[in-house]
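Two proteins were folded this term; both appear here.
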Amino acid sequence: MSVLSLSARNPMRTAVRSVLIFEVIVFGLAVPVMILVSHVPAALAGGLAGGAALLAAVAAGLLRTPFGYPIGWLTQLAGVTLGLLTPTMFVAGGLFLGVWLLSFILGKKLDARNQQRPSDA
């Protein structure tokens, strides 16, 4: 198990997957906000926010593989970085990063506790 991932039986995997799925939705909805409110060119808004949404979808789908969590961490960076195009995304990306970090830290604590305890099976 890597420092950047949670064990396969960790219940917090559901929480981090949920964060990624909600990011897909929010990043997609950020495109019209960037265009209409922040006057970002449509191609740039669609490319960057759409790319971030795609990154989140790929990470959610790959959480069971060694690549899922690193892509998830990259997604968090992308979400906050979208704030350079529209300041609202600093808030949204920061909130997602906070929930991701909290879920991940709690998941790591569960992993550590489960390694100390003998298995019930």
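Next, the second protein.
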Amino acid sequence: MYNNRRFKPGYAIAEVLLAMVIISISFLQLSRSLASVMGAAVQNINVARAINLAHSTLEEVMAQSFDAKGSEAGDYALIFDGDDFVSHGDVFNGIQTISFWLQVDGIGGTDYVIDLDGTKNIRVVGGTIISDITSPTYYVNAKPSVTTIAAVDTWYHVAVTTGTPLNVSALQIGKLGSNAAAFSGRIDEIRMWNSARSAPDILANYKRGLANPYDEEDLKLYLRMNKGSGSITKDHSSNMAHGTITETGDDIWTGESSSWSTILGTEGEASWGTYDDVDDFNGKTFTHDYYTGLGGIITVVYVDVNETTWAVTNPSSSPTSDYKQITVRVNIPGGDAYTQLHAIKSAKLIQNYSLTYSPYGD
């Protein structure tokens, strides 16, 4: 029997077109779904990368010390009230670098910090470092050609180098010759070398204790000032030029050592690779070497911490405390999302400091 519907092509074309529309819609939906899935996958990858970058950056920052200026945190310095001084006598003929930490009680007058031989001395006059040393190069906080002591009750590191060797034959600290004692303030970490230390050497070492001073061949005096009691200042160099303390009135030993700074930020370091304190990273931004748009910022603040619960009770940029909080924030590309990590660094632990040999204990 003849089927007269079999050869009507209109129905086939309509069915094909309908199928094509359905396939197109399905493909569009599939494409959108795939795009959504791929977008989510990319975002997840960015999140993972941001988390990894935050962790690795925080680990790098936390590997640095709290603020290793001279002696380790929590130890001692000597406090002079105008009547105290220390005598070391003959130290060495050939000194070319002298460095120390000091804190002055006043800026208007003259403070005789170190008398080398009864003639040559290092002093602070009206807030300026002055000496009788031939052709000196001055450093304050490891910055060359700086001589200013700008504030009272603030620790400054002072270094003086010369190409003309000095005969330190009658060393006195806090006194000028046979005159009355003439220094009011605090002194810590005195070092003398028989070589002219370079600017990079001073910058690299002024905030660090010396791990093995007895074996430092050029080191001829090293007063760590960490004993905390008694009338003797121990020289931890192989020269062993120990000193005698003369004090009047209050105890000359103080727990306020030069172990940390009130300044958050770099103190002369030129690049990330030379940062050696956690606070050197404060305010620094960074990016990832390979992933565009992935980067962040580091902040460091002093905080008060409950030592039982480790809860931060008073995040603040000042005053100084025994704890610093480091925050690493990494932005995630494609929006305002970010990942953020916090960590607490304590000054109460000895960090970046190891004394491998000392014949005198403290």
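The chain is about 15% helix and 30% strand. Confidence is low (pLDDT under 50) at residues 68-74. These notes refer to the second protein only.
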